[in-house]
Structure formats: structure tokens, C-alpha cells
């Protein structure tokens, strides 16, 4: 089945309209008409091959919300008309230890990404959500119960939401815990919202005094301007957990100094250049940890979506037409968005 999409034929070419093929639903597949797709920094990195290994043509997009338009004969969890989502994964081996524990993002045989992953479908690699329609195994489709008018703002939950939710849950953010969120961008703004909703004392870190009120409005109990040495020093040794969403190389010691004994600094951003080597003595003498986290499994993504629906949580977004995607990428690189672009996929038909 041929559908309209938006993608790039090479790293140095702008995105453009193209026709792609989608498979007909197999026995365990769900066909989704895509209403909205969030724009993630990973989309830009992949399209421009900044991480290497991009297969062209590349159609990005892994923050997908839409409606079921067909189901395979063995699908029982979804029906035509259901509101559903697809995140960063569309397949995994389903038999390794990680998959058995519902942690498909750590599949020991490699998960299949929603775009740029190897697949038997033409053209041999997955094509993402900057498109009118997608067909996905029912194991990787998520139920969405937010109101229809919120759906565009739900889309970024499928990546930005789960990328922050998974570590917050794993390290038990909640009442009685002091939790820091470093960076108030696409990921960080969701981290603040979720940590606050989980009941943690939530502290936002920003390099910009101008973002102080924004962070408070998102739900932060306190805001620290990280360039202010006195503000940083006042919180030394007081954090149970700090989630660092910044993808640029920077000094991690400034944050490990703020951890309590047994505290953890968790990184979810991959920098273009390595962080300076941390001072391990700070870790050794207080049993502190620097850890990492990658998106989330399907079960915890569903848990996050249900929690957000129950608590009225969505992303802060700016809606765009797909034809404006290159401009959106340029603005995203300048952090000129509050806080996530979302494509209105109806614009693909224009």
C-alpha cells in the first residue's frame, strides 16, 4: 500500500515529500492512520547521519499517535477506531532475558527501531511516523486514553515521556525523595512534570535565569541556575537522584557533588563528544553512582501513558505542518521551541 511520507534521500539533502510502501496487516499486526508525530532530536541526528549508519531514504518519527484502521485476524487487544500510539520500538527478539522481563529496549539481540531498523519489509529498513500510515506488531502498539483534543500533545510522551519516566521509576522517585532534573528542554520539561506528579521534591537545573519561572510553572519546587556556584553549593550532598537530560558534553562532577551517599546521577543524553572524565573519588567515598537509561519497555510505556492520562499530563508543544520540518530542525538545534514540535500529519496530503 502506497502512502505519503516526508523524508530525506541523503544526509546533506532537505526533507521532501515521497511515496513509501506499507505492508498489509499480517495476523498479529495493527494498521494505524497517523494523526500526529512528535519531532525528536534523534530524528535530526539520524536524517543528517550525525550518528552514522543511516539508511536512505530515511523517514524519521517515533512519537506516533493515531487511530487503528485495520487489524490482523489474531489481534484481540485492539479494534478499528481505537486511539493508539507507537514509540521508539516496533520489534525485538521476544525471547532473551530482557524481553522476557518487559525491557525490550535492552533486547540482547537488538531491538528494531521505528525507523532506520532492519526489516524484511520494503525497502529493507523501517520508515517512521512522518507518514500517513504505519503497520506494527500488536505487541508494540500502546493504548491511549487521553481526550481527543490532547492527542497532539500526547505524541512526545512516546519518547520524551518514557525516556524520563523509566529512570524516575527505576530509582524510585516519589514522596520523601529529592530529585533533580538537569536541562529544561524536550526531555527535561517532561522530567519535571513527571517527578512532581510522582510526589518527589523536584528541583530543576537550568543554565538560564530566564527559564526559572518556566521551570516553576512546569511543577518544579525549586530552580537552580547551574552557572551560579553559590546556588549549586547550597545543595551539596542533598539529592537522592538527579536525572541529567543534557546531550552536550559537560562536567559531571558538578552534579555528583550534589548527591547524598548512595545517590545516583542518571544520564539519558548521548553527547557528540565524551564528557570529561569524572572524579571517581567522589563516587567511592560516598558510594555514589553515575548510571544511564534508555527509553523504556512496552509495559512501562503503557504504565506511563496511563499515569499521564489519569493525572492530566501532556507535553508542551508547538504544532507544525510537515513542510516546515527543516526549519523546525534548525530551531530545535537553537533550543527555540517550548518544548517539543509535533507534526500535524494531515499536512502530508497537501
Your description of this structure?
The chain is α/β, with parallel strands linked by helices and about 350 residues long. It folds into 2 domains: about 210 residues, Medium-chain alcohol dehydrogenases, catalytic domain (Quinone Oxidoreductase, Chain A, domain 1, Alpha-Beta Complex), CATH 3.90.180; about 130 residues, 3-Layer(aba) Sandwich (Rossmann fold). About 25% of the residues lie in helices and about 25% in strands. The chain has 11 helices and 17 strands. Strands 3, 4, 5, 8, 9, 16 and 17 form a 7-stranded mixed beta sheet that branches. Strands 12-11-10-13-14-15 form a 6-stranded parallel beta sheet, covered by helices on one side. Strands 1-2 form a two-stranded antiparallel ribbon. The longest helix has 13 residues. It is globular. The protein starts with a strand and ends in a 6-residue tail after the last strand. The mean pLDDT is about 95.
What would you give as the CATH superfamily of the largest domain? Medium-chain alcohol dehydrogenases, catalytic domain
> H/E series, N to C?
EEEHEEEHEEEHHEHEHEHEHEHEHEHE
Query: What is the radius of gyration?
Result: 20 Å
Q: What's the number of domains?
A: 2
Can you lay out the helices and strands and say which pair or pack?
Blueprint: E1 2-7, E2 16-21, E3 29-38, H1 41-47, E4 64-71, E5 83-86, E6 89-91, H2 97-100, E7 112-113, E8 133-137, E9 142-143, H3 151-154, H4 160-170, E10 178-182, H5 188-197, E11 201-206, H6 212-218, E12 222-225, H7 229-233, E13 239-244, H8 253-256, E14 259-267, H9 280-284, E15 289-292, H10 298-310, E16 317-321, H11 325-333, E17 340-344
Parallel strand pairs: 10-11, 10-13, 11-12, 13-14, 14-15, 16-17
Antiparallel strand pairs: 1-2, 3-4, 3-8, 3-17, 4-5, 5-9, 6-7
